[in-house]
Write a structure and sequence with these properties.
This protein has 230 residues and is α+β, with helices and mostly antiparallel strands. The chain contains five helices and eleven strands.
Length: 230
């Protein structure tokens, strides 16, 4: 019944939208927690390749089983109907994505980069490039946030000391956030804050580092860092 319901929705969407259905080149990869709801920013209808793993949760999909699932999203742009395809990694709630979990962290960093660049493109800014050393620094800062949620580091130094010998020689910035469990949620959190939004859309920046840490015994559990470099 659930499978039929989703495909009926997709079929109805195809009928409602005028124009041809064009194959989309864009593919995204996301890691989400069990029980969370995933959706795109724009209006879309969804189908999945494994109907035991997700259920419709207007306006997106709620994941009810761990594992990997392929999600198709039908969107309309410029009078054409597109089907985007995403690979979703559904992990247990409270899954510890530590610095040692390199694959999951890379997925998180890449997802945040794509969401940030989408916002920058809408604002007419050049896209950022993910930089390995910045990601390593951001991972360190994210773990520090589980101890002290502040732009001041646990040892009393300011956040820019993480840049080491480059401190004072570069144009840089830091965004921090806590409580959001997915890249989509944290980018929305930052974009809803004027100061964080200003960093994300700052045209002087060229590179981005993304860090994430989880501590189930802390106040917010999920901690995120963006480090920007011009």
């Amino acid at each position: 019944m659930f499978k039929l319901k989703i495909w009926l929705l997709a079929f109805c969407l195809c009928i409602l939208f005028s124009g041809s259905v064009l194959a989309a080149e864009y593919n995204g990869e996301y890691t989400v927690e069990l029980g969370s709801v995933w959706r795109l920013e724009q209006d879309a209808l969804y189908d999945v390749d494994n109907f035991s793993m997700a259920e419709l949760a207007n306006p997106g999909l709620k994941f009810v089983k761990t594992g990997d699932v392929v999600v198709g999203a039908f969107i309309r742009e410029n009078g054409q109907l597109y089907r985007l395809q995403f690979l979703i990694h559904v992990v247990p709630r409270g899954h510890d994505l530590s610095v040692s979990d390199d694959i999951s962290l890379r997925n998180y960093a890449q997802s945040v980069l794509e969401l940030v660049n989408r916002e920058r493109e809408k604002a007419g800014k050049r896209t950022l490039v993910l930089k390995d050393d910045l990601c390593q620094m951001a991972d360190i800062r994210a773990k520090e946030l589980t101890v002290l949620f502040s732009h001041t580091r646990p040892d009393g130094r300011d956040c820019f000391s993480i840049f080491g010998s480059k401190q004072g020689k570069i144009y840089g910035g830091e965004n921090i956030a806590a409580g959001s469990s997915t890249p989509e949620a944290v980018v929305n959190q930052w974009m809803s804050s004027p100061g964080h939004r200003e960093n994300i859309l700052n045209g002087k920046y060229r590179y981005l580092g993304v860090g994430y840490a989880y501590d189930g015994n802390s106040e917010y559990a999920h901690y995120w860092v963006q480090l920007f470099e011009g």
